Amino acid sequence: MKDIEERKASPPSPSPLSKSKYDYYGICFIGGMLSSGATHLAITPLDVLKVNMQVNPEKYKNNGILSDIATIWKEEGSYALWRGWSGKLCGYGIQGGFKYGLYEYFKNFYAADDDRALIKLNRNSIFFLSGLSAQLLADVTLAPFEAVKIRVQIQRNFAKGLVDGFLLVYRNEGLAGFYRGLVPLWSRNLPCNLDGHVFNI
């Protein structure tokens, strides 16, 4: 009875979101990781087709998406359409987590009321800088997974799995092998993501 009365007298425990702003960043990270990982996993067959069209444009030229997917299925089996799925799930999951978690962090950082503050910036400028900073760093985490994924999709017997692919790239090309495609990755991802951040969508 005494315990019940003490619990009634004590203030309610804070909700997860009110404990700390870092809890909020963590929730954004998890949400971004789950949503980005799942959606990119779902479109793996389209990604496989895109890579095949880039490597062998004469074979996959103006035939239509469904026709080209059917060609891959017929020649290599249904599993071929999911080649590199683990790289997409893990890579874009981690990238999505950092992208949305860091976006919220940088919004507070750039608008902070201290010596670092960019007080004179309007909201869209803060959103733009936050999105830019988050995307630049998030793509650094994605680049190694993209490097392995593309090799798995192009070179049929490149690796047995994601971990094996990482080891092979590191053994053959060193750390630089993971980041050869970083600049093209930035060139692709920055323009199509910053507009959404500017309007805070």
Automatic annotation (TrEMBL):
Pfam families: Mito_carr. Gene3D superfamilies: Mitochondrial carrier domain (1.50.40.10). One of its GO terms (biological process) is mitochondrial phosphate ion transmembrane transport. It comes from the Eukaryota. Keywords: Membrane, Mitochondrion, Mitochondrion inner membrane, Repeat, Transmembrane, Transmembrane helix, Transport. It is a multi-pass membrane protein. It is found in: Mitochondrion inner membrane. GO terms for molecular function: phosphate transmembrane transporter activity. One of its GO terms (cellular component) is mitochondrial inner membrane. PROSITE patterns: SOLCAR. Its main location: mitochondrion. Solcar repeats lie at residues 23-109, 122-201. Belongs to the mitochondrial carrier (TC 2.A.29) family. This is Mitochondrial carrier domain-containing protein. It comes from Medicago truncatula (Barrel medic).
